[in-house]
Structure formats: C-alpha cells, structure tokens
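Action item from last meeting closed. Structure (356 res):
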C-alpha cells in the first residue's frame, strides 16, 4: 500500500524541516542542479546505513559527500591538489565531483572502504539545505539501485513512497555530476561538466576510457531494495544491482561496474538511423525516444520527444526512461560522442538491453 505523499515545495519552512531531519539522522530527498539526491548526515554512520538499505545499494559503491563551503570541505577531505583547486574555483558550486584524500573522521561506510572521498559543492536549494543543516550531506541519486536517476520529485516519490521529499521542480541538467580523480587528473564518470570544459583548465587531463559498446552481464537474479530476494518493481529479467562485465583495465568509479538506469522494458540503442528505421518498421508497437529532428521520420509510431539540443536531450533522458507511455520496447538513436553527448551515451549504453 502506498503511504500518503510527503512531497513539499521548497520554502524556508520546508527547508528548515528537512535540515532538522538531517540533523536527527533521518533521510531526506532534495533537488540538486543535476538530479535529486537521497541525503543523510555524512558523519552519522547509522544515517548513512539507512541510505544503503533504502536504495538496495551494494556496500562497495561509495557515496558523494555534498558540502556548502570550504570549511566543510576541510572537515571531510585532506590535501587538495592544485589541479583540484583550479577546478573548484571554476566549477563550484556546480555539477562537478572531486575525488580527494579522505579524513579519518569520515565513516568508511560512506567511502566504501576507500581512502578517498568524493566531494561536491552543489548550488541553489541543495546548498541552502546543507548550510541550514550545518553538516556535510552524503547523497547518492534518489532512485532505487539500478533505476534511472530521478529528475523530478514525483520520480523520487515513486521509488520511495512516504519519504520526505523537497520539491524544487525538474532539475536543470538532468544528468549527474562529472566525477574527476587526481594524480593524474582523470574523468571517472562523464556528467554535466564536459570533458572539453575541463580540458580548458587541465590540458593534462587523461583521456577518459572510452566505454565499448558492450552488453550487461546476464543470468544472475535481481537483488531487492531491501535485500530480501524480491525482484525490483517493473524490471525486465536479469537486470538489477548485478555486476557488469569489466570494461577494460581502466580505473573507473566503483559504481560504474553495476547495471544502471534500467528502464521498465527492453531498451535498444541503435548506432545508425537506418538500422533504427528498419527495426521500427518491423515493430510498430515500439516507443521511440526521439530528438525533435528525428520525429518526422516516426510520424506513424508512438514517440517521446527528447528536445532539440544535446542539453535538452540530457535534461529529458531520465524522465523518458521512466515514461509510462505504452510501447513494447524503447528504441533510441546514439548521439555524437562529444560534449554532453559523452555523458548521454554513457547513460544510454548502461540502460541498453541491446546495442545494434
Ligand atoms: O550529480 C550527482 O553526482 C548526484 C547528485 C545527488 O549529487 N549524485 C550521484 O550519486 O550521482 P551516485 O551515488 O548515484 O553516483 C556517485 C558516483 C558513483 O559512481 C560512485 O561509485 C562514485 O561516484 N564515487 C563515489 N565516491 C567515490 C570515490 N571515493 N572514488 C571513486 N568514485 C567514487
Ligand atoms: Mg546513481
């Protein structure tokens, strides 16, 4: 049975209520400029444990700590390399996460036992909330493990009925932050800040590993959000928090080895428009996720419009993966792998059941 809605528009009152909950060790979902986060006091091990249990998140997948200022940063992270300082100056507050040496003070549960901690200073409502709470906030994306990241309060309420959610409307970027590690500087996860933007400041940035077009590993049963063996809602077979085949030897974020962003039905990613059209001809009941320029080719199909620019595509992608429109399978065309297109392709490849 669904519990009553606990979604609150952002006001000073709801912000204060959320901050008080964080201080009491409770979970709160809140909007950031990227996606909604599921937050807890990062220094309260019990509270952080609640995040892992609620999401069904594997214990070796560390969580980003969100800070409101440099003083809070110094509480959780040790020596900050010069390259990281330059990136902070340019992109904070904003959608960039930096992997830094961890202070012993930070519970190892947050960092999945690593000696590094991922830190980000978000802007707007999220930063106001952290400032009011007065504690650093550990927050993964506010979705059940394996599901698409939430870009609206309704997505969060769907995955976590009854959870206290601050509703700040649809998020600005719609994709998660870019994660960068140092010595040497390298991208661990493509996101809302592009590789090109980073390279302007850090020409030495190691070329990020290009993900091959691979399929997820199959055959293992799903893990339920509560770890009791139930399958996740609305999931196809063999999707879940199981591990993927490793993608080369490149060091990536621990989280990237798990299946992500699984939509509620098969998703097929096409490299070429011609193969998408040919497949759609044979599958009139499919639902096509379409940038605006492609929509005229699919007048006879059900389509979800993703917008025109790569920014719009990025912003609407996760909501499209959660669409409740009818359609036997989701069909989507690859986007050019440059700028934000890298992050979009990364998410599509992870979400895909099949790549053609
Ligand atoms: O935009 C975002 O980053 C959102 C909002 C809520 O801030 N958060 C988010 O968190 O996407 P999550 O947990 O869904 O993804 C965090 C990623 C994971 O791939 C995780 O493995 C990686 O960051 N990560 C966290 N700590 C790390 C560390 N110490 N070293 C390497 N990767 C780390
Ligand atoms: Mg996530």
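Sequence:
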């Amino acid at each position: 049975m669904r519990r009553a809605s606990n979604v609150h528009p952002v006001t000073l009152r709801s912000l204060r209520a959320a901050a008080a909950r964080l201080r009491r060790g409770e979970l709160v979902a809140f909007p950031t400029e990227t996606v909604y986060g599921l937050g807890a006091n990062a220094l309260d091990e019990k509270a952080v444990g609640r995040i892992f249990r609620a999401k069904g998140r594997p214990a070796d997948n560390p969580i980003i700590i969100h800070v409101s200022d440099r003083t809070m940063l110094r509480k959780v992270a040790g020596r900050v390399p010069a390259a990281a300082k330059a990136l902070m100056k340019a992109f904070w507050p904003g959608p960039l996460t930096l992997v830094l040496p961890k202070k012993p003070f930070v519970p190892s549960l947050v960092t999945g036992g690593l000696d590094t901690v991922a830190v980000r200073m978000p802007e707007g409502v999220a930063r106001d909330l952290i400032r009011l709470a007065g504690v650093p906030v550990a927050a993964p994306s506010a979705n059940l493990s394996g599901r698409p990241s939430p870009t609206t309060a309704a997505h969060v309420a769907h995955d976590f009925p009854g959870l206290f959610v601050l509703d700040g409307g649809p998020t600005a970027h719609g994709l998660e932050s870019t994660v960068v590690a140092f010595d040497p500087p390298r991208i661990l996860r493509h996101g809302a800040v592009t590789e090109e933007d980073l390279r302007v400041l850090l020409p030495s940035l190691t070329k990020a590993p290009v993900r091959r077009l691979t399929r997820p590993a199959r055959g293992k049963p799903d893990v339920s959000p509560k770890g009791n063996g139930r399958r996740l809602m609305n999931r196809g077979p063999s999707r879940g928090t199981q591990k993927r085949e490793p993608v080369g030897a490149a060091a990536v974020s621990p989280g990237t080895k798990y299946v992500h962003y699984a939509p509620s039905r098969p998703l097929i990613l096409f490299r070429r428009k011609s193969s998408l059209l040919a497949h759609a001809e044979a599958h009139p009941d499919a639902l096509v996720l379409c940038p605006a320029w492609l929509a005229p080719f699919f007048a006879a199909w059900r389509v979800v419009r993703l917008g025109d620019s790569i920014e719009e595509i990025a912003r609407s992608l996760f909501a499209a993966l959660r669409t409740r429109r009818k359609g036997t399978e989701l069909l989507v065309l690859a986007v050019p792998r440059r700028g934000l297109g890298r992050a979009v392709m990364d998410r599509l490849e992870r979400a895909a059941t099949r790549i053609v």
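Note appended to the action item: The chain has two domains: 7-207, 267-355.
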